[in-house]
Amino acid sequence: MSEENKQEVLGRLKDGVINYNEEAVKEAAEEALEAGIDAYEAIMDGLTAGMVVVGDLYEKKDYFVPELLMCADALYVGLNVLNPHIKQESRGEIKGQVVIGTVQGDVHDVGKNLIKIMFEVAGFTVHDLGRDVPLEKFVEEQMKTDADIVAISAMMTTTMLGMQKAVEMIRERNPNVAIMLGGAPLTQEVASLFGADGYAESAGNAVQEALKMLKNLREMRKK
Length: 223
Prior knowledge:
By secondary structure, this protein is of the alpha/beta class. It has helices at 3-18, 22-34, 39-59, 65-82, 88-94, 110-122, 135-145, 157-173, 188-193, 203-222, and strands spanning 97-102, 125-128, 149-153, 178-182, 198-200.
């Protein structure tokens, strides 16, 4: 398959997710496999690329929760076709565990759910605590699963303040875990002030930030 044709198939995967067209995604995913396109590449450069655009559309309020859910359904149709064909070495490169949840007092979980999808697509094992999560639950789940990363979301300024306490509680029990914060009221400066290792500005950069944190964490453990 020529590079031009390959990009055309990847583009149809991406557009199918953006336009929540499950049938188009299924057809493009099957065509990608028949053409010998690497399944992991099809997921990341096709499906995930589409979901990044969807996240941007949601943040700009061009898309709302119903569209987001339909896009996620289309994404999972593609994943069901492609996931069984991912080469083991592709999974091994980025495998890690993430505990994720929306902080206590906050019931807004759409952004958190989007980032959860992105983590799963990238090959992370995700332990989703849901929304309005008691601070101590983040600590308990990390200790139970020995997760590499704890990702905490907040969508309100009032609940955001609980993040700092959660970071302190996690650090007290396990100083060698990476902590990522995200959500509308946060900035990189606030996340750093709260003691986090990483900041997810959007769903699109959450996975890259997590991979960077994971690499740093593993290098630190070798010392």
